[in-house]
Specification:
460 residues, Elongation Factor Tu (Ef-tu), domain 3, 6-stranded antiparallel beta sheet, 16 strands, 33% helix, 16% strand, globular, binds flavin-adenine dinucleotide
Length: 460
């Protein structure tokens, strides 16, 4: 048992013993806080769950790359520095997977469950929480962390929608692909915002980069979209899309001209010579630094392989490197930027915090890391300390920064596109073969250095 137990007799309720809830409960209990951990799966599993253990990996058994010069590796090393239960159990039950940290999923989840159950400051309760405030009061808890994940049960979804979020709670995630700016052929692209004249001022660029298509290119492209292989919905996903957020392939299937009247609309996107292209794909900066661009309105059900093949047919994207690919799946997540403070506490219910996928990240490791982030902030709050700002150059800092700066809520994996760009020398920029590797290595070295400096100031 850690030495610093019982620094506070305050109680915290954690809802959900998944990846993020397990981390939050573990961190808080290890810092002397009494935790009530509420989990529903032993009463009723959701359709993705197959076991009673906590921290279930519902799909792949991989926590992704583990090498320190990868974005996932950086994140895991930061989590480890904060005493992550997920990384500890994963390392103990790792199976050979090259550079990735993959686990025996049964043993991994069983280990996390045993560790949590054995902790003297953690009490487990089996309940499908429908009203977090009521449960918080019932257990005499001062704060609650809602870590109920992408498949939050209906009663809790209903409570959140009615009391906190209204329409700012989402049930599907429609992700558009993101490409590395360095992999684009800018000679085929042009900057222009729709209906806005191009600025004459030097150095002032429009927000959107556009890829023009002539008629033949457009027809070929849409035909490929129609015919490409799609990911079928899971049993519980029964796709029902909002008309304003249709996948680009669904639009293509509705008719050859449909994309040209929606996300590939050329109106207001005249080329520098004043003519209007037959159709255009818009790319929007994914971060302020312009190191990554997303394909606007290109949320898609295409399989990953097909996305790379078909989207590289867009002029200027022939050699595109995809930082992440598009997808559509069932996912409960909040518009955290609008509804929460930087510590992920609710603005309207200050005793409620959100952690994990529901707060707007995507993926096992990302969700788990946000459980630690919220626990750190909550512990500070209980001690009367201020919000701790994580440097944006670190993995955890980059995820938080993304949630609070993305133009619209769209859960993201950790990737180098979320970290500020690094400066390359002229020579490094010219090295087309190794440029990407050098860039990642520099960003990774910077992340490690800045995280170490940051952590040394915390006295952890
Ligand atoms: C079908 C599917 C496949 C996925 N595949 C992958 C993948 O391959 N790789 C990857 O990195 N990520 C994947 N993800 C995303 C992954 O689920 C999340 O990244 C991660 O598990 C989220 O962690 P979390 O802690 O936010 O939620 P979870 O790990 O889902 O934990 C939430 C917990 O809360 C419990 N709960 C829900 N509602 C209530 C309630 N009202 N009261 C009490 N308890 C409640 C749940 O039973 C669950 O145990 C997938 C998600 C889904 C839905």
């Amino acid at each position: 048992m850690p030495e610093n137990l019982n620094i506070t007799n305050k109680k915290i309720l954690v809802i959900g013993a998944g990846l993020s809830g397990s981390e939050a409960a573990w961190y808080l209990a290890n810092h002397g806080v009494q935790v009530i951990l509420a989990e529903t799966k032993t009463i009723k599993r959701n359709p993705a769950q197959t076991m009673d253990h906590f921290a279930e990996l519902v799909c792949t058994n991989s926590l992704k790359a583990n090498n320190i010069d990868s974005a996932h590796g950086i994140l895991k090393s930061e989590m480890k520095a904060f005493g992550s239960i997920i990384v500890e159990a994963a390392e103990k039950h790792a199976v050979p997977a090259g550079m990735a940290l993959a686990v025996n999923r049964e043993d991994f989840s069983s280990e996390v469950t045993s560790m949590l159950k054995a902790h003297p400051l953690i009490e487990i309760i089996e309940v499908d929480v429908s009203n977090p405030i009521e449960l918080q009061e019932k257990h005499g808890a001062e704060y609650t962390i809602i870590a109920s994940g992408p498949l939050t049960t209906d009663p809790l979804q209903k409570w959140i929608t009615e009391n906190i979020s209204g329409d700012d709670f989402y049930f599907y995630d429609a992700i558009a692909p993101v490409v590395d700016a360095d992999s684009l052929n800018f000679s085929k692209l042009y900057y222009k915002d729709r209906h806005t004249p191009v600025s004459e001022e030097e150095g002032v660029e429009a927000d959107y980069l556009n890829a023009p298509l002539d008629k033949e290119e457009y027809l070929t492209f849409v035909k490929e979209l129609q015919d490409a292989e799609k990911v079928p919905p899971q049993g519980f996903e029964n796709y029902k899309f909002f008309e304003s957020c249709l996948p680009v392939d669904t639009m293509a299937e509705r008719g050859i001209d449909t994309p040209r009247f929606s996300c590939m609309k050329p109106i207001g996107l005249e080329l520098p010579d004043g003519t209007r292209p037959y159709a255009a794909v818009q790319l929007r900066r994914e971060n302020l630094l312009g190191s990554a661009f997303n394909l606007v309105g290109f949320q898609t059900k295409l399989t990953y392989g097909e996305q790379k093949r078909v989207f590289r047919m867009i002029p200027g994207l022939e050699d595109a490197e995809f930082i992440h690919l598009g997808s559509i799946h069932r996912n409960s997540f909040l518009n955290t930027k609008k509804l929460c403070n930087q510590d992920f506490s609710s603005i309207s219910f200050p005793s409620l915090y959100f952690a994990g996928q529901i707060s707007g990240v995507e993926g096992y490791t990302e969700s788990a890391s946000m459980g630690i982030y919220v626990a750190i902030q909550l512990l500070r709050k209980m001690k009367g300390e201020e919000l701790l700002r994580f440097p944006v150059e670190t993995g955890m800092g980059a995820l938080v920064n993304y949630i609070f700066t993305a133009p619209k809520p769209s859960p993201s994996n950790i990737n180098f596109g979320l970290l500020p760009s690094v400066v390359l020398t002229k020579e490094e920029r010219r090295n087309r073969v190794l440029r990407k590797k050098i860039k990642k290595k520099k960003a990774a070295d910077r992340a490690v250095k800045i995280f170490d400096e940051f952590r040394s100031t915390l006295g952890e």
